[in-house]
Amino acid sequence: MSRRPGIVHLGIGAFARAHLAWYTHRVDGETWGITAFTGRSPSAAAALSAQDCRYTLVTRAADGDTAEVVDTIVAAHPGSDDTAWRHLVASPETTVVTLTVTEAGYRADSAVPARLVDGLAARRAAGGGRIALVSLDNLTHNGAVLRDAVLEATDDPALRSWIASTVAFPSSMVDRITPATTDADVEELADLPGALAGDRVPVVTEPFAEWVLEDAFDGIDRPAWETAGVRLVPDVTPYEQRKLWLLNGSHSLLAYLGLLLGHETVASAMDDPRCRSAVEQLWDEAAAELPLPDDEVAAARAALVERFANPRIRHTLRQIASGGSQKLPVRVVDVLRRRLERDPGAGVGPGAATLLAAWWLHCTTQPELVDDAGAPGPDSDVHDVLAVVAPDLDTTPVVAAVTAAADRIRTAAGSARGTVDEGVHA
């Protein structure tokens, strides 16, 4: 199949192949292709190129696996190939650039904004037309965050003006749990109907998928993603909040609390009544602040329970636990601030208190599992924790609530280990 190479993607990891590439594979009408660039390591580009950029997408449901071959990627380049990057972003055939670079890719010390500016400068020099840059990362208002990062990285006033008038930055909300592919996953492909023979880089994902995209392309050509189930809306904010506060927030809670209680996976932690109760409390607090109909929120919660309980999606808590210093402010602190602004007497909900306390104990009692440059150190107290994620909330009631939650967690963890714990102190 001949595909129009109209999309350039930066950060072609497993999620992008399970989500963006899968949706693009399913559109009706003109077939679009993706030219992929790795974020850092060149190995993914080499592995994809070795099999003509085709790969197997394994959908892992509770009752078994199904496989399909995805051929949306038309070429894969290492991230270091600056010449190819500039050429492709400048190409008139390219009208969409998408990114999965994690939250860290939008910080001032990241190389991503400068790389985008480099490509856009080449496009302007070539007389290229309008183009859309679409973030597929878990950030509220990710389109605006991306636009600000790009403009702040632009030193040339003329280029800055051209970007402001020529480049669109639609926001999006994406969702599909995609655990890391294991050696066993690769070996099992040989017995799975529909799999690509000899595939060394398959992707394993859950049946559920969602993409809500801001309808802000302003005449820019794009795939007919809506024919593949993408929801085009004027404002993605409520859907971003729903995803961040319900799915991502509970993922963080399950990761930190689950690890402390001896669990390894989301499914195992969700099966623990102590974790499940804390998740429901967190969801209750988020639901009270979500600007969405109650029935839609209830449906989202029910879907998450089913997704988290899928025993065949081995989503490890250690994988989820990384980067809490960037994730917690948008996954739980935003909800807590809104709660207190709406009702100053509401206090800290038990879900939020448990999540903050679990992160504190994760950083201080199991530092060998911490993968987060911004996390407080192993000798940190509750004030150090709040200084990282919510310095404005370092108040007596918040400190008391988080400290009490930490004591409860330590007691539960000590019981699980058969030991007596003396608690924690602010």
Automatic annotation (TrEMBL):
Alphabetical list of Pfam families matching this protein: Mannitol_dh, Mannitol_dh_C
Catalytic activity, as annotated: D-mannitol 1-phosphate + NAD(+) = beta-D-fructose 6-phosphate + NADH + H(+)
PROSITE patterns hit by this protein: MANNITOL_DHGENASE
Organism superkingdom: Bacteria
Keywords: NAD, Oxidoreductase
Family affiliation: Belongs to the mannitol dehydrogenase family.
Protein name: Mannitol-1-phosphate 5-dehydrogenase
Record lineage: Bacteria, Bacillati, Actinomycetota, Actinomycetes, Micrococcales
